[in-house]
Amino acid sequence: MWNPLSWVMEAAAIMAIALANGGGKPPDWQDFVGIITLLIINSTISFIEENNAGNAAAALMARLAPKAKVLRNGRWSEEEAAILVPGDIISVKLGDIIPADARLLQGDPLKIDQSALTGESLPVTKGPGDGVYSGSTCKQGEIEAVVIATGVHTFFGKAAHLVDSTNQVGHFQKVLTAIGNFCICSIAIGMVVEIIVMYPIQHRAYRPGIDNLLVLLIGGIPIAMPTVLSVTMAIGSHRLAQQVYSWTISMK
């Protein structure tokens, strides 16, 4: 209920019981209850679908969590990249995603694709003693490396933290806000025109005029739009998770 469209609907609910109490008639409790019920239903659906979308994204990230071949207690084993700590010895080979920032040890030089991090279009050659970034992809070679940074302390983690700390609003939210503001401004202008026409010109009674304003106010607000968008995004998240997971399985 925390968006401009819902605020207008809440104002309409207050208007139904406050301003509509006139002309010898009681407050319009039916409209009030109907508006509040609609708001609660929309808010509940939005909350559930946004939660489902978040769960789908979290499940996808868990499925795609990188693994690493790590040397511990004298034995090589495949472990989740999340449990790596600085000082661990890992093995990097063709096709692997580098699980952490690391420094290469003895072995063949690697061809590393780090375009997602640095913007370099071609793979770069890394030899013993060179550092590699978490999130890079090994395109050629095989070598051992020692982990020097993990999590938010990696080059990728620091860049992600800068993105998370920004206060800029996303493009999708900007579009949604612009649509809401346009609807609100249009309805406000329409209500002003209707008030001028009904009372000073047509000299209508107080209560019928308020009823007309309520119809314009409620009918002109696309109250279900945020809910529809939430449902659409949730469905898209589920489909994306299924498609990416299927693609990952087929590549293995």
Separate helix tally: 7
Mean pLDDT: 79
End-to-end Cα distance:
44 Å
Question: Nearest-angstrom radius of gyration?
Answer: 29 Å
Structural class: alpha+beta
Task: Write a structural description.
By secondary structure, the protein is α+β, with helices and mostly antiparallel strands. The protein is built from seven helices and nine strands; from the N terminus they run H-H-E-E-E-E-E-H-E-E-E-E-H-H-H-H. It has helices at 4-18, 29-63, 115-118, 155-164, 171-201, 206-219, 225-251, and strands at 67-72, 75-80, 89-93, 101-107, 110-113, 124-126, 131-132, 137-140, 142-149. Strands 2-1-3-9-4-7 form a six-stranded antiparallel sheet, with no helix packed on it. It has a three-stranded antiparallel sheet with strand order 6-5-8, with no helix packed on it. Helix 1 runs antiparallel to helix 6 (206-219) and helix 2 runs parallel beside helix 7. The chain starts with a helix and ends with a helix.
